[in-house]
Automatic annotation (TrEMBL):
PROSITE patterns named in the record: IG_LIKE
CDD domains: Ig (cd00096)
PANTHER family in the cross-refs: IG-LIKE DOMAIN-CONTAINING PROTEIN, VASCULAR CELL ADHESION MOLECULE 1
Protein name: Hemolin
UniProt xrefs under SUPFAM superfamilies: Immunoglobulin
Keyword Glycoprotein belongs to the record: yes
Compartmental location: Secreted
Organism this protein belongs to: Papilio xuthus
Domain Ig-like span(s) in chain numbering: 35-135, 144-231, 238-327
Biased segments, Acidic residues type: 8-33
One Pfam assignment: Ig_3
InterPro entries: Ig-like_dom, Ig-like_dom_sf, Ig-like_fold, Ig_I-set, Ig_sub, Ig_sub2
Amino acid sequence: MHRRQTDDYDVLADAAIDDEAQNDGDGGNDADEEPEVSAVILTQSTHYNITLGDNVRLECKVSPADGTVVQWTKNGTMYFFGTMKTQDQHATSYAQNQRISIPANSTDLLIKNVTIADSDTYKCEVLQTNRVTIEHTLNIQEKPKIVKFSASNNGEVVEGSNLMLTCVVGGSPPPQIIWSRDTGNGNERLQEKDGEFSINSLHIKNVKTSDAGKYYCYAFNGVGNKQAEITVVVKSKPRVHVPKAIINSAVNVEAVLQCSVHEAAPAHIRWYKDGSLIEDTSSQFTVSTRDHHSNLTVTPTSDQDFGTFTCEADNDLGKHNRSIELVQEPVVEDLDVDGPKLTWTIHSHQPLEQIELQLRQMSAEGQWKTINVPLPDIKTHEYEIIYPLSEQDLEPGKYEATVKVKNEKSWSQHTPPAFVDIVYRGNSGHIIRPTLLSAISTTLMYLLVRML
């Protein structure tokens, strides 16, 4: 009986276990399904500024990552679809050369060697019942490039016409332009007074010869900069320059008359004497011309060979001339100040006979006061005179001073005036100080002649 009771207990227990197992196998009423776990995106929306040609990785970090499926769209259009895997996933439909991929062990989007076309809005979306998204903005930046820098008429314009400079630039963000040009003081930025500016052009009206030279277009946008240059040539009629407008010589003394032509177009140079053309075959005159410079060598044989010689240059746009006087009277130049001394230079192949320094007070219509300057003892054809004035010669005030010289032929012309200011200094006498070009100092009078 005891054994039977024990066996009955075991059978019931086994039956109960079997019933529980059966209930479990049939999906018993007490067991519930596990709820779905929603993934979240941990990355924040970002604005990416990337330089053209670089790589960019748009982040989309999700949690949990295993098994999560994400979809990338570009401006609302499906762009890439993938999950986290142990190897890179490459796009096949949109990108060529595998530029677009999802790197291994991530759901980020990697774009290599970005182009301007990649600039757009990108959205990363987790594909689940409760969808979540983030949105990135990708801006591709490009260093400035100068597509074309040009000038009207290929940079060759006629004086008085208009000049248009155009600089077509590219880049992202759009570059700004600075205009500049070479001047005597280096590269200087152009201002509104120099021309009219538009978005990418510069308009210069009534062009002058001084507008010729190199112009620069400088483009910048914060990513980089670029510069280009162009040379502008301004064509004009010739302009003749002579270093000396009056030259002293003597019979049988050779004189060289010089002129130069400043212009941007080829010019033909001719010499005239008293209005008559000097022929190249002349035995009395020798013309030597090289580029823009011309010399006329004259050896007078009589008084009639002196006179007015004219250098004239002409081209397709016009002509211009300057005259030189070949004379026998003295030529006085460079009335100036050298420290405490009044200085000037005399040119004369003929013996000097008289030197006069003339002064007149400017406060009233005073009379000219003449001071005879001693003649130099040395005979030459060029004299440098250094002459101070004693304070006993002049009262305080402002004076106009000029010099003229006589040789055996004639008197010279008066020099252009110099202006002298004499100030009274109390009991100690006068102070003689220069104004503008000249000065006279308080000291003993002396004369210095230097033979050149």
